[in-house]
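Comment thread on ticket #2218

A.B. wrote:
> Attaching the input chain for the structure job we discussed in standup.
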Amino acid sequence: MNIFLAGDSTMSEYDAATAPRAGWGQMLGSLLNGKAEVRNAAASGRSSKSFIDEGRLAPIEEAIGAGDFLLIQFGHNDEKDDEVRHTEPFGTYQFYLNQYIETAKSKQAYPILITPVQRRKFGENGKLQDTHGQYPEAMKQLAAERGVPLIDLAALSKELLEQLGPEASKKLFLWLDPGEHPNYPDGVQDDTHFSEHGAREIAKLIVDKLHEMGW
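C.D. wrote:
> Ran it. Output below, let me know if you need it in another format.
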């Protein structure tokens, strides 16, 4: 059985040149104990629209088969203002998400929608501030209308980040002091992309929900 991943930079694969930056998709296989092969097609900077417009869904459609899964996470870049990526939550966003659903269903595979994972943005009250607007709600609405399983990663990651708090949650993200890692000699403070530790913690949330779904 194969698990195909379609999504953005928070899900995608990274090589040694960008370590310890990691996407949660690249940690998924190690948590599945050999039960499935993960085929990660997620790509940095893509929205539900640009991923399809660039032809990235086509290879998935060609390779996916009966009994496989397609995990779909978009929203980080759909909110961008540029014409290449922007979608409207209750319009074009749902339109493009439907294409992923139809691709899986046409091959007797199982689509699973995943709301966008949270960025690390805390308010003065210590509560996480959502940065994804109406996109998570639009995805949940579509999942209900289509009868498609949904993992609410926006809610799950919010709970995790708030449990850790503003300081400890930095360990989940690409936060490095100057000189701490040779790939980032000047240091880095990235509240969107994960460290290897953070990517694994997010992947655990996904695996737990897959198990709850009976997989």
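A.B. wrote:
> Thanks. Noting for the ticket: The longest strand covers residues 188-195.
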